[in-house]
Amino acid sequence: MSAASHTETAPAALDTTRGLNVMVVGVGGQGVLMISKALALIGQRQGLQVKQSEVHGMAKRGGVVFSHVRFGAEVWSPTIARGEADVLIALEWAEGLRWLEFLRPQTGVFIADTRRIVPPFACRSRRHGAPMAYARETPAEVLDKVGEGYALDATAIARGLGESRAANTVLLGVLSASMDVSAADWLAVLETLAPPKSRAINLKAFEAGRAWADAARGDPSLSFDAGFDTHVTQADLPDVSVRHTINAAWCKGCDICVKLCPERCLALNEHQVAYLKAPQACTGCHVCEWLCPDFAIDVQTTLGT
Ligand code: SF4
Ligand code: SF4
User: Molecular function terms in GO for this entry (predicted)?
Assistant: First the structure.
């Protein structure tokens, strides 16, 4: 049950001195690693032992990224087992749901951006406005399963401040409201991590997240984004720019990529070498890259156009 939705008083702050296990999840380019570095520094500033591990092999391709941060008097393993995360921070809604089982039942704190980054594979129908195969749980349903939960449109808050990439710092501000760490420690860590030119916006984003969480902790009805719509359509697909390269010297013309491209945008030329016939139709799904037996294709995607 959501403590935030069933108590009149604000939930107690997490006792950092006893140690903490925090998972941070999202997709490449969202700033997962900045949050985990900030938490590692916070742990160190409390005089605790810190261990951190991360997976970010697909980070530059919009792939899944996650990080475990553990701190305490003594920490042996850098990874968090299922059901043992005190906090799960999700920078993308469906990613948060995917890792929910890692959160401590009854007591875990779930903090999620309701922003959706819908993968091309979720698009089963190309009809305009067709629904997508994407997580359909509402924030209210999810928050009811966790000890304490907050779901907000952190990206919109950050965009309103002038920099949508500061959504991760908004979420850090939300987390700070649930931890017994001094404001001075948080500010020192932000000043260490944020480059000088984005320091001011990061401080504003942190304060905005903190203010949002303070309000939500005082009024449970504010702890989830009431405007969140579970019906996902093509309009929710993020703007992605794709760089698709075929190494002609390595292509042996097997035709696999041509046959299996879901968008039918590849073909073989007169030399039996694959080429991108319809670049405007390419979604950057990576299928051709993964299936080419000769590693002749390189697909790079970046969020934003
Ligand atoms: S990445 Fe490859 S398989 Fe996917 S749409 Fe583009 S060309 Fe087709
Ligand atoms: S799968 Fe690879 S080798 Fe086969 S046609 Fe495509 S690029 Fe060439």
Answer: iron-sulfur cluster binding; metal ion binding; oxidoreductase activity, acting on the aldehyde or oxo group of donors
Substitution site in 255, 257, 288, 295 for ligand 2 pocket (most atoms within 8 Å of beta carbon): 257
Determine which helix (DSSP H) or strand (DSSP E) holds 185, and give its type and residue range. Answer: helix 183-193
What residue ranges define each of the domains in the chain, with the CATH number in brackets? 3-234 (3.40.920.10), 239-303 (3.30.70.20)
Residue the block writes with tokens 């792939």: 63
pLDDT in tens, 258-281: 998 888 899 999 999 999 999 988
Quote the CA–CA distance of 112 and 92 in Å, as a whole number: 7
d(CA 105, CA 226): 24
SS3 state of residue 83: coil
Q: Look at residue 125 in the predicted model and tell me its pLDDT.
A: 53
Q: What's this model's pTM, rounded to 2 decimal places?
A: 0.68
Residue type present at position 278: A
When the pLDDT of each residue in the chain is averaged and rounded to a whole number, the result is: 83
Report how far residue 26's alpha carbon sits from residue 48's, in angstroms, rounded to the nearest whole number: 26
Residue 288 alpha carbon, nearest atom of ligand 2: 1
pLDDT given for residue 124 in this prediction: 53
Q: Is the CB of 257 under 6 A from ligand 2?
A: yes
**Which residue from 46, 50, 24 is spatially nearest to 188, judged by alpha carbons?**
46
Ligand 1 near 287 CB (within 6 A):
yes
Residue 257 CA to ligand 1 centre (angstroms): 8
